[in-house]
Amino acid sequence: MADDFLLDTDDLTRRMDGAMANLRTEFASLRTGRASASMLEPVMVDAYGSMTPINQVGTVNVPEPRMVTVNVWDKGLVGKVEKAIRESGLGINPQLNGTIIMLPIPELNEERRRELGKVAGQYAEHARVSVRNIRRDGMDQIKKAKADGLSEDDQKFWETEVQELTDTYIKKIDAALENKQEEIMQV
């Protein structure tokens, strides 16, 4: 029965790719002294009774290298969008101009750069934990197959495959973190 056991490594790879994609999104939200529309992606606005991404309540633009604007479509939501930006932890002070919210991006000081580096490290650790959880799921599948009669050689083979996949993704996460921290510390 277990002789035909085949671990779905494509599924594990897909899930680990998802963890990497999530990490890239979180890294994009960290400002590095340059204005970027992606820095507002994680901001959620309490609109119409549910939490809504900011890009679904207005248009996010980058008119200048140090300015992001949000043109809110519904006048009634301007206050809620401003509040969501203030509470997002981005460290940006929004300025209102009618239905347009302007976000001037200040120059980063050394202390703020270090804080952002720590936040990037936390994001990377969350991604590592996700990858390890996926690894654990794969190992649990192998243990279940072992209980159903999988040979010890096959068990070792699949465990090695899962561990190598995990190691590869942990290295990718570490490399992405190193690149992001270098980018943050650039003056």
UniProtKB/TrEMBL annotation:
Location of the Ribosome recycling factor domain: 23-185
InterPro entries: Ribosome_recyc_fac (IPR002661), Ribosome_recyc_fac_dom (IPR023584), RRF_sf (IPR036191)
UniProt keyword annotations, A-Z: Cytoplasm, Protein biosynthesis
Entry's localization field: Cytoplasm
Source domain of life: Bacteria
Main location (coarse class): cytoplasm
Protein name: Ribosome-recycling factor
The species this protein was found in: Marivita hallyeonensis
Native organism taxonomy: Bacteria, Pseudomonadati, Pseudomonadota, Alphaproteobacteria, Rhodobacterales
